[in-house]
Design goal:
zinc; mainly alpha; HtpX_protease; rod-shaped; cell membrane
């Protein structure tokens, strides 16, 4: 199932490589893995946002407050780390799909 446009643009060998790459994604269930990674990154970011608003608006005068380093790690570093992990997983899945092309062709 390819478009006429890509058939005109690519040679048969190139088209075979593209299809093998995409079918390797299907075989390896990359969509599921990417979805789980995105959900985890989103959950981490959401928790960081909740903690940020709690730290800003939820303070009371009778408590000592929050640890600034822990707050910094939660608000800034955790979402960045989650995004980097998500990108790393994506890069790994692409590498494995390319490797699948090498094996099939």
């Amino acid at each position: 199932a390819v478009t006429e446009g890509i058939q005109r643009l690519l040679t048969d060998e190139e088209l075979e490589g593209v299809l093998a790459h995409e079918l390797t994604h299907v075989k390896n269930r990359d969509t599921l893995i990417s979805t789980i990674a995105a959900m985890m990154a989103g959950a981490i970011s959401m928790i960081a946002n909740i903690l940020q608003f709690t730290a800003i608006f939820g303070r009371s005068d009778d408590r000592e407050g929050t640890n600034p380093l822990a707050l910094l790690g939660t608000i800034i570093i955790a979402p960045i780390a989650a995004g980097l992990i998500q990108m790393s997983i994506s890069r790994t899945r692409e590498f494995l799909a390319d490797e699948g092309v090498r094996i099939h062709i």
